[in-house]
Design the sequence.
């Protein structure tokens, strides 16, 4: 049940509001002046606060100022019988959610309450999303092997520059994590990190995706659209699986890197862009060049800095750290009590041939969390790590 606080020095107003709100099944508290209302609002969480403007001891604007200063998250709805446009604007500027004039209108009150509750819900959802994004973005590169330490050192050296980076490695090794680490440690980290999976976009759509299009450029182009180069301007553009990009798109990307300009599909107008390009591939681009599937000049534009991410089989000493890391996050995400590996279970994980690399390891840890008891043993690993299809 939602809890609402009414701060008003007029008993008749408080009573009328209470009747309306209790009929709608809200829990209602009252305060007969600004001082009493402020004290209640600071010690008790309310879903919505109604606050009169003209009151003794402490007026409504002063109450609003104090609540905003205290970072009160409750939507505050100002009410007044002496209101005008200037007063309403001033209240909204200070941080009030809305302003309602007396005499109070039932429908207006209910609509405002609904909107305020929607705002509260959106704020809470945004907090959850921000926490999730922060956790995902803040995920450090896990590992202490020499190979991983070299990658971390390279990121620290390269990230502050605008040098283009080509990240190589097999599927599932964590190339995207390296790209995100480069962005997060760069001077562009307050601007967007935009990812494009070149292998997942049909060849006939990749140019529109990267460079945007003008209305009418093709059948489904019903309005102008910005491409990823424009959206990422000021930040970082991550071109994943760039070895799968079509030849025509490669030519346009090369021009964008050379001149920092693009042209939308269906347009001849140049658009200036300013984004750092980080690319990744699981292919041998030298071989692709020799076989005519990848432009050598584009390769040299992209590969100013080369970072190779080793396979999990080449860094098995990191498996215990990775497994514990995934175990913690999976248990947290699923809201279950944290389980644990016994020492022999971690040894058993190190003995597996990890053809799917870190992605496969995470999947198996999740499977073990779901299927096993509080302590995951070596027998559990042998039973569930490679189940027969």
Sequence:
């Amino acid at each position: 049940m939602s809890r609402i606080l009414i701060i008003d020095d007029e008993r008749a107003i408080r009573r009328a509001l209470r009747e309306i709100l209790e009929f709608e099944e809200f829990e209602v508290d009252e305060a007969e002046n600004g001082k009493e209302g402020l004290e209640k609002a600071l010690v008790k969480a309310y879903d919505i606060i109604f606050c009169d403007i003209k009151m003794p001891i402490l007026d409504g604007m002063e109450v609003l100022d104090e609540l905003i200063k205290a970072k009160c998250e409750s939507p505050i709805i100002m009410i007044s019988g002496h209101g005008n446009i200037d007063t309403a604007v001033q209240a909204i500027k200070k941080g009030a959610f809305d302003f309602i004039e007396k005499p109070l209108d039932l429908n207006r009150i209910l609509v405002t309450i609904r909107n305020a509750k929607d705002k509260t819900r959106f704020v809470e959802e945004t907090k959850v999303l921000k926490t999730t994004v922060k956790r995902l973005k803040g995920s450090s590169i896990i590992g202490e092997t020499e190979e991983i330490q070299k990658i971390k050192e390279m990121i620290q050296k390269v990230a502050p520059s605008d040098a283009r980076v080509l990240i190589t490695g097999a599927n599932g090794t964590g190339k995207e994590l390296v790209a995100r680490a480069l962005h997060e440690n760069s001077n562009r980290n307050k601007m967007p990190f935009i990812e494009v999976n070149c292998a997942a976009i049909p060849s006939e759509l990749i140019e529109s995706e990267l460079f945007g299009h003008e209305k009418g450029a093709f059948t489904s182009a019903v309005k102008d659209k910005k491409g990823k180069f424009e959206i990422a301007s000021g930040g970082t553009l991550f071109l994943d699986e760039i070895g799968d990009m079509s030849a025509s798109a490669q030519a346009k990307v090369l021009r964008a890197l050379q001149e920092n300009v693009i042209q939308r599909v269906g347009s001849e107008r140049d658009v200036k862009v300013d984004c750092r390009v980080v690319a990744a591939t699981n292919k041998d681009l030298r071989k692709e060049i020799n076989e005519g599937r990848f432009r050598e000049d584009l390769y040299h534009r992209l590969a100013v800095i080369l970072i190779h991410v080793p396979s999990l089989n080449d860094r098995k000493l990191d498996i215990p750290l990775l497994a514990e890391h995934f175990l913690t996050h999976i248990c947290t995400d699923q809201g279950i009590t944290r389980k644990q590996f016994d020492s022999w279970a971690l040894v058993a994980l190190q003995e597996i041939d990890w053809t799917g690399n870190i992605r496969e390891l995470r999947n198996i840890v999740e499977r073990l969390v779901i299927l096993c008891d509080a302590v995951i043993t070596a027998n559990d690993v042998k039973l569930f790590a490679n189940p027969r299809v």
Remarks:
- DSSP finds 16 helices and 16 strands in the chain.
- Residues 134-138 have pLDDT under 50 and may be disordered.
